[in-house]
Amino acid sequence: MTETFDMPTLLSELGHDEARRLKRYLDTVGRTTIGVGRNLTDVGISDSEYDLLLENDVARSVMWHVRHLPWWRSLDAVCQRVINNMAFNMGGKLLTFANTLAAMQRGDYAAAADGMLASKWAMQVGTRAYRLASLMRTGAS
Questions:
Q1: Average pLDDT over residues 75-100
Q2: Residues 6 or more apart whose Cβ sits within 8 Å of residue 137
Q3: Residues 84, 58: Cα–Cα separation, whole Å
Q4: Do 33 and 54 belong to one domain?
Q5: Is residue 2 part of a domain?
Q6: Does the structure show a pLDDT above 80 at 70?
Q7: End-to-end alpha-carbon separation of the chain, Å?
Q8: C-alpha span between 86 and 80 (Å, rounded)
């Protein structure tokens, strides 16, 4: 015989007993944990949770562009992806690429690609920078 249980009440009880934590913490035995007792050390996350986290992070990145680089919307899809990829990696430090961003804004994609490759960021991310600069330069996927 299969018994049913009251999922909403169980979720409420677990939220109360385990606490809702939106940032990682160490549990009482030293395991990295998040949420309502999710043991990241031993359990990790599922593929669907990975996908949801990534989609939410990309959406947050896009909203950042809307606020800080409103001209970003006028770029073609490939250049938008390049800027998104860079911002995803660097966050707000992307704004320190003043000359590169100005070149992107005025449509000088060759100069923007050159600026990308001349940066400390390019040295840190290696082939990612070359791939993104190539996309910026050519506009081809």
A1: 94
A2: 109, 110, 112, 113
A3: 8
A4: no
A5: no
A6: yes
A7: 56
A8: 10
